[in-house]
Give the backbone structure.
Amino acid sequence: MMHLTGQKRQITTSSKPSDQPQQLRMEFTTTSVSERTRPEVSTAETLAMLADTDQQIKVRSEQLITMQVAADSVRIFAAASKATGGFVVIHPNYKFLPVLQGKDDSLVFLYQFVEAIEEKLDYDELKAEYPMLSYGQIAGGIAFLRKLAQFNIENKNIDDIEDQIINEDQGFVRQVRESLTSRTVERVLTP
Amino acid sequence: MCLLHRTVVAEEGFQQLRRSGDKVNHLRKLERLASEASKTVAQGLEAFLVPVSSWRGDDQLQQLREYQMGRHRAYIKGRYTDCEFCVCILKLYKKEKVDREESIQFQRKVLKAIGAPIIEQLEGKSLIDPNARSKVSEV
């Protein structure tokens, strides 16, 4: 028979250097097994508790790996910013979402800046430069850069967040419903 | 090679873009992408259409998927298996009265949703914390 006692440890992952001041912490509960006997705990119960502990360690380990990957990603983004003049701000205040700061104290999300670049691009001109690429590959390359620019330490999907904000506008949602029954202008047979 | 239609409502959006001096033909971009999809190949436009998360469960709205057209959005019905797409409506950036995406209110909501502490610290017109200010932006 064994007796289980809980023990709490704290694991700290520091994302130094100084341009990444945030520290990632997680509480990690492990269970040590002492030799003391406790007659009221059966072998089956002990095995079940050990299995629980094993599962808990597994989950915590996965969390730790996820946090380590996030910290590494922040490091890569911060290094990229530093290597490109530091114009793109990677800061815990914005959960490391890359931003540009305007002189008039305005904030420009880097992913919106990439969207603006895409908006101004003529795919046909790019296609002339890269005839070996499809339109899908051209659009995909830009969409990839946009997604990268949506990085944030919480791994939140910025597109979902934007959709929710936009869809709070019931007037717009009503227009969308109406558009579903709107007649079509013409059929465009793509070449 | 799939077909692309557009509704009268979407056409108004495309015309509004042209009137505002937009030199890029967004409709042509969509046509080019649609042409790369076929009944058996989920490429081109099909690869970029994403369901709108907040419309899941709504029988009417979930027919539509979103295409990010620069900072604008196109809401499109149809799949590659039908080999037909229909642009139903556009949401034009800087054109809507409510929650314009460049506004500080919109940015505040995005930052709040990702749990950025800046929201708690700052009020008023700026979202830039002096401590987070980029040195190069002050030059």
